[in-house]
Amino acid sequence: MGNDSVYNALVEIVGEDYASNQPEELYMYSVDSGTEGPRKVDYVAMPKTTEQVRDILLLANEHRVPITPMGANLTLNGLGLPVNGGIVLDMKRMDRIIELNKLSRYVVVEPGVTQGRLGTYIEKNCPELEHSRPEAPPMATVVGNIVIRGHGFLAVKYGNNASQINGMEVVLPTGEICKTGSFSVSQLPFSKGPLPDLSALFCGWNGTTGVITKLSLKLFPKRKTMDIVGYAVHDVELVPDLLWRITQTDMVDNLFVVGFVFGDSGESPQYVTVCFTGDIDEELEHKKAVFQKIAEEFDRAAPGKVEFLYPVTEMLTSRFIEKPPYVSPALAADFEHGGGYRYCGAILTVDKMPQAWRTGIELARKHGTNFLSGTQIMGYCHSVNFCFVYPFNRADEESMERVRRAMRDTNEAVLAMDGIPWKAEVEAQKLISRKMDPNSYNLIQRIKETLDPNGIMNPGNWSK
Ligand SMILES: Cc1cc2nc3c(=O)[nH]c(=O)nc-3n(C[C@H](O)[C@H](O)[C@H](O)COP(=O)(O)OP(=O)(O)OC[C@H]3O[C@@H](n4cnc5c(N)ncnc54)[C@H](O)[C@@H]3O)c2cc1C
Q1: Which of 148, 203, 347, 389 to mutate to test the pocket of ligand 1 (most atoms within 8 A of CB)?
Q2: Interval 229-274: pLDDT, tens
Q3: How would you label 186-224 residue by residue, b for 16+ Cβ within 10 Å and e otherwise?
C-alpha cells in the first residue's frame, strides 16, 4: 500500500477515508446483482467535487489506469463494472440537489442523487411536478439511468429519460470540464437547443466518453388523480393493434404489458395496463369509458379474446399506482432460493411483440428456466422495450449459467428480429457491433478515440 503510487495519489485527491486498494473493500465493486463478475478492481475512489473527478482522470491518464464511473451499479448487465481492472469511481458522495426551478420545470442534480431521493425531494418541495422515474430500486442514480438511456413511467408521453435532459456538466476523459446545452452559454440549464446536442455524446456510451458531474433534468406536470384500466388479451397477435388503438386516444400516461410462463402453469394472458391521469374525477370517468369502448370494439371483432379489467388486479394496481413499484422483480426473481434475475430489454417495433413473446417461451424451455416479459411502450408506440426476463438462483451456479446461455440466445434473436438489445452487456455489444453498418461502428470508435486518446475509460466496454 505504501509504495502504491496510484493509491497514494488517490488519497491525496479524495482523502484516506474515500480511497481504497483493499481486496475486501474492492470486492463489492467487482460484482453486480446480475450474473456478471466478479471482475478485477484495483482501486476505488469516492470524489466529492468536480475538481476531484478531474484530478482523478488526469491521474488515470498519467498512469494509463482504466477508470469506470459507478452509480448504484444496478444495470444487472455489468455495465458499472470495469472490464479490465483499474479505478472504480464511486459517485455516491456527489449527492447535492442543486436547483429546482418550478417555473421552467427542471431540476439540477449531482451524479450521486438517487431516484428515491429526487422523488421525495420533488414531492416535498414541488408536488405539482414529477420526473419520469424508472422502476429500478430507489437507490439507482438519476445520472446512471440517463447514461444507459433508461426509461420511466412517463415514457409514453416523453420518450426515454435521456431525451428529457436539458444539459450537463461533464469531465472529459482528458480532464477538461465541459458543459452541454444552454449550460454552455448561460448560467441557466433550461434547454438543450438550439445548439448541437453534445449531451448525446454521453448517453448510450456506458460512461466511456466522460464523467457526468451535473445534470439538468426536465420535470413534468403531476396531475391530481390517476387511475388504471387493464385488458387481459388471450391472443398475443392482437396486442400490437390494441396498443396502437389505445395510444391513438392521446389519453395515456403509461402503457405496459406483462406476460409470464412459470413452470408447467401454461402461458398467462397478456396483461395490458393503461395508466391515465386527470384533475377532476369526471375526466377520469370519461377516459375510462373511452378505454372500455375500445375493449368492446375488439370483442366484436374477436369475441372473448380481449377482456376489459376494471378494477385491475392487486398486482397491477401496486405496479402502477403505488410508486415505487417493485412487482416485476418480485414476480420474476427466484427469491425463495436466494435468487435474482436478468433481462434483455429489446428495443423493437411494436409489431414484433408476438414473435418476441413466442421466442422468449421457446428459449426459456430450451434453457430450463421460467420466463416473464414486461414491455414498456415508448412514445406513441414509436418503439417498445420488450424485456425478456429470466430468473435464477444465485446459490446454484448451474441455474446462473442457464440464464447466461438464455441471454446469449436472446440477444441473437433480438438482432434477428431487427431489434436492438438495450443496455447491452459486453458480449451483446460485440454482437451489435458485428451487425452494425461498418461506417457507423468506425464513427463510434473515432469519437471515443478523440475524446479518450489514452483509452482509459473502461476499455473493453463499447470497444473492439
Ligand atoms: C429491479 C430493477 C428494475 C429496473 N427497472 C428499470 C426501469 O424501469 N427502467 C430503466 O431504465 N432501468 C431499469 N432498471 C435498470 C437500472 O437499474 C436503472 O436503469 C438504473 O437507473 C441505473 O442506475 P445506476 O445508478 O444503477 O447506474 P450504474 O449501473 O451505476 O451505471 C450505469 C452506467 O452509467 C455509467 N455511469 C454511472 N454514473 C456515471 C457518471 N456520473 N458519468 C458517466 N457515466 C456514469 C456506468 O459506468 C454504467 O455504464 C432496473 C433494474 C432493476 C434491478
Answers
A1: 148
A2: 999 999 999 999 999 999 999 999 999 999 988 877 789 999 999 9
A3: eebbbbbeeeeebbebbbbbbbbbbbbbbbbbbbbebbe
State whether the beta carbon of 156 lies less than 6 angstroms from ligand 1: no
> Do 5-92 and 93-221 agree at the fold level?
no
Residue type for 290, please?
Answer: V
Indicate the pairing of strand 97-101 with strand 106-109. antiparallel
Find out whether 163 and 203 touch, Cβ atoms under 8 Å: no
Sheet holding 177-179, edge to edge: 97-101, 106-109, 211-218, 165-171, 177-179
Ligand 1 centroid to residue 237 C-alpha, Å: 32
CATH number of 225-424: 3.40.462.10
Contact (CB, 8 A) for 438 and 194: no
Non-local CB neighbours of 460 within 8 Å, separated by 6+ positions: 83, 84, 426
Task: Please name the residue whose Cα sits nearest to atom 49 of ligand 1.
Answer: 206
Are 94 and 143 in contact by the 8 Å Cβ rule? The answer is: no
pLDDT of residue 394: 85
Assessment of whether the complete model's pTM goes beyond 0.90: yes
Rounded-to-integer distance, Cα 30 and Cα 43, Å: 10
- CATH class, domain 93-221, is alpha beta
Task: Kindly list the domain boundaries of the chain, sorted by start residue.
Answer: 5-92, 93-221, 225-424
What CA–CA distance (Å, rounded) separates 412 from 138? 31
* Predicted local distance difference test score (pLDDT) of residue 462: 85
Indicate which atom in ligand 1 lies nearest the CA of residue 145.
Answer: 21
Q: What is the pLDDT of residues 398-449, one digit of tens each?
A: 989 999 999 999 999 999 999 999 999 999 999 999 999 999 999 999 999 9
Q: Give me the pLDDT at residue 34, please.
A: 87
Helix, coil or strand: residue 126 = coil
Contact 168 CB / ligand 1 (< 6 Å):
no
What's the pLDDT tens digit per position in 316-364?
777 676 654 455 555 666 666 777 888 999 999 999 999 999 999 999 9
Assign a CATH topology to domain 5-92: 3.30.43
Average pLDDT of the segment spanning 113-133: 97
At 178-210, the pLDDT tens digits run 999 999 999 999 999 899 999 999 999 999 999
Ligand 1 atom nearest to CA at 139: 25
